[in-house]
Amino acid sequence: MYERLRDCPALNEYPSHIPALVWNVWRRYWTHGHRSTCFGMEGYPPMSLLLDEREWVLVDSSLYDMPVLSWTDFQDKGRAALHEPVICTVREYHQGAPKVRDKALQLMAEELEARLRKRRGSPLDDGAEHLPQIGAGLTR
Questions:
Q1: What are the backbone angles phi and psi of residue 66, rounded to the nearest 5°?
Q2: What is the C-alpha radius of gyration for the chain, rounded to an integer number of angstroms?
Q3: Structural contact between residues 19 and 138, judged by C-beta atoms closer than 8 angstroms
Q4: Cα–chain-centroid distance for residue 68?
Q5: Does pTM top 0.70 for this prediction?
Q6: Mind listing the pLDDT tens digit for each residue in 77-129?
Q7: CA pair distance 69, 58, nearest whole angstrom
Q8: How many Cβ atoms sit within 10 Å of the Cβ of residue 31?
Q9: Which residues of 45-79 are buried (b: 16+ CB within 10 A; e: fewer)?
Q10: Helix residue ranges per DSSP H, the chain
């Protein structure tokens, strides 16, 4: 768990969902032994994404890893249909969080897919070719 979330009050909190495409890539990555990971967000240089089993946190590295946005309380127990989104709670810690939420999920899925391909030794080094755009399906 990212401890700084306790230190920063959320500006907004609401129920949301993770698109099935993003969740499925995360689960494949997680089941390959990557229990937690951290990487910078291409296109958002000061931002990094911290992922673990119970929460995903987008932080601003230029502000001492202050949280910008988090996805928590994933409700994936008993999930039988791979095409259905996973219910979660989104917490916003920065006024600009809604502007980067959808893009952060898209970049996360692309990065994890690329890492899985690299691990398998695929000649393709970027999984983005077959990942559709996510943003249109994300709403509160």
A1: -65, 135
A2: 15
A3: yes
A4: 12
A5: yes
A6: 888 889 999 999 999 999 999 999 999 999 999 999 999 998 777 555 444 44
A7: 5
A8: 9
A9: eebbbbbeeebbbbbbeeeeeebbbbbbebeeeee
A10: 4-7, 20-31, 97-120
